[in-house]
Please model this.
Amino acid sequence: MTTMIVNIPEKEKSFFLALFKKFHLKSKVLSTDDKEDIWFAKMIDEAEREGGEVSEQEILKLLKRNGAKI
Model:
């Protein structure tokens, strides 16, 4: 099974959900917290691959820039 994340305009949400249902595809709408968790995990993975560390200040700065309320 393959997982895809699709960004769609809010006004077309119902159309795409109906389309997924028609083709018997499982769908899930991610909450803001889910999106932040995915983004944070991605940031950690990138830092580990580079063999370095990311400071707490840099993480907080990027979270705020991406709309997280801290």
